[in-house]
Amino acid sequence: MKEQVKYLLGKFEKGTLSAAESLQLLELTGTEEETVVEGISEMMSEQQEPSPNMTGDLIWSGMLTKIVGIDQPLVIKRKPFLARFRWLAAAVLLLTLSVGLYFYRQVVPEPISAFPEQVTADIAPGGNKAILILADGSEISLTDAENGALARQAGITIRKTAEGQVIYDTSSSDGSENEASDGQPKYNTIATPRGGQYQINLPDGTKVWLNAASALTFPQSFNKLKQRHVILNGEAYFEVAKNKEQPFKVSTGADIAGKAQVIEVLGTHFNVNSYDDEESTKTTLLEGSLRVMPGTGSFLLRPGQQSILSQHKIKVVPADTEECLAWKAGYLQFNRADIKTVMRQIARWYDVTVRYEGAVPALEFGGAIQKDLTLVQALKILNKSQIHFRIEGREVIVMP
After folding, report:
1. What domains sit in the chain, N to C, each tagged with a CATH number?
2. Which residue intervals make up region (Disordered) (predicted)?
3. pTM greater than the 0.90 cutoff
4. In what order do the strands lie in the sheet with 353-356?
């Protein structure tokens, strides 16, 4: 039995474990937990560095928590040489101090029948869904629209590509039709519903990825404008086209709970999370330069930094860029997040409402859930932390 466990653990560590073998290893944790823990301990003592297949956060600490689970105490005897290898010492420290639940990206989906019997219908994950609202008030469903030209305004042709993107073709536009009768620019809005996301190429060539339940308002043409000013509600990732003569600015909508701000850039890659139901507005810089201006203040961000604005107060911290961009890469990712933070993301992506029955579980979560999983499969991962769920239609009830 012990040799079989070590064989399966070795394949897990190398990234070659099949789905059937994954289930076999998980089953062993329920019947042969001590053997599994002993096998992991031996492999840790035999190995000085993690495998190249397990980079970043995919180290033995994650493997241990994934296999054995946080709901059961795990004790590992320290070897004298552990202090010499920081990655291994960090793994032991994480296991002895953490009270969170770690999810792996390579999740083996479990059948719906394994979830509570009251589930009668699963809910599919979100996808490419959005509505384009033109300056004249007309609406175009980008979800249902065929590929090709969608509309023409101010000399601009709006197209939908086969990859599910909206592109503004400005080759024949001079901006002469961009002003309303009062001299103000005409604006378009692209909005994603709960359970939707979309990519748009703005008239200046800037690329924007919108997360679920988000909206971006922008001029139908940037020609003849002194600056490129857009308004965001929700979350988006920007790759701004460089134009020193025409600064790019992003406003995060109305001042709700002291979270409003203006971001000024020349050419950069950054992510903004400004949902109304979140406690703060978070701006994360990946590349270039960025100036965050909450109220009368001004803060310059460097690549790898994040500003957090709440109650009219702002702080700048090192950014977890992987967590910030996980939604764009196809994951719901958390770093010591409480259950309400986790469930807000679940609610947006699966277009469900969430209700708490009894005391809210005081747990922290870390790791990632694939966004292509169904709702039941996603909740089964959370269920491993001894948090229980009930699904009634499109409502998820969280129970201790």
Report:
1. 2-98 (no CATH), 113-123+324-399 (3.55.50.30), 127-323 (2.60.120.1440)
2. 168-194
3. no
4. 353-356, 395-399, 388-392
